Amino acid sequence: MSHTHGRRRAAARRLGATAFVAALALGAAPVLAAPASAAPAPAKSKPAAGHGHTRAHASTADEPSPVDTLMRDAEVRYANAHWNWTAWNDSTPVAFGADQPNYQCAEFVARSLAAAGLIPGLSPDAPQNDYFTYHAPNGEVYDLLLISDLPQYHNLADYLHDSGIGVDLGDHPELAQPGDVVVTYAGPGGTKSHTGLVVTAQTATSEPLVDGHNHARNGYGYHYFAPSHLVQLVPDALAEVWTWTLEQELLHGPLQPAPAPSGSGTTQAPRLGTAPLLGDPAGPQV
Questions:
Q1: Which of 51, 106, 176, 244 is within CB 3.0–4.6 Å of 147 for a Cys-Cys bond?
Q2: Number of domains in the chain
Q3: pLDDT for 208-255, tens place per residue?
Q4: pTM for the complete prediction?
Q5: Is 22 among the domain residues?
């Protein structure tokens, strides 16, 4: 592929992602009404690349694009607005550190990603069962309510990897930026057990801060999630995931949109699917 063609393709992806974010901003004004908490300039590092993808990214880790900034703001806004909810459709607040058995860690992170358009076909207000059996563009079914390693399920970490939007950097809090994902490895045999969303980057006086569920946490220190890995969103992650979607649709057919939830869904108990919804059986929930 020529350099000119590559630049045109990258520009087309950027324009497509920009248009999507503009639509997201118009349709989710409460989420995007203000920027996320101010963060220092990202630590310079080698730009991440989506797993299994050969597409060149148009921005670098130390020069986030306006689209990336807006996307990450959307994630953080959702997380900061929902960290203490009782359930995905029950805004009754719980106390800091309280249990949230109907709205656990992976679901909270997945809905934050969906609020930024990073899970095609899912909205942050979609019913819980749509997250339990998410039919992804690649033809796989993912349980986005799950972070633990269970061989019969594709979990949230698998989705981040397979879609190409997340790269596991290991334990590198100095590289964390708002919107990145933290995964705890405190399950049996050092397997995945918990997850949270970075809301503030490391500063000269503070470690990165993380929002999480079950227990309810807002602006919680990164070290409480140890032993952990940082899953960094790749540059232009929004363009990455929607380009991946288009490519996969050519192979598997169009992605079927999830049905719209009935009712307002803001104060009722969660509507569970007919299939059993799995929590995370492994490890502590910080």
A1: 106
A2: 1
A3: 999 999 999 999 999 999 999 999 999 999 999 999 989 887 877 675
A4: 0.75
A5: yes
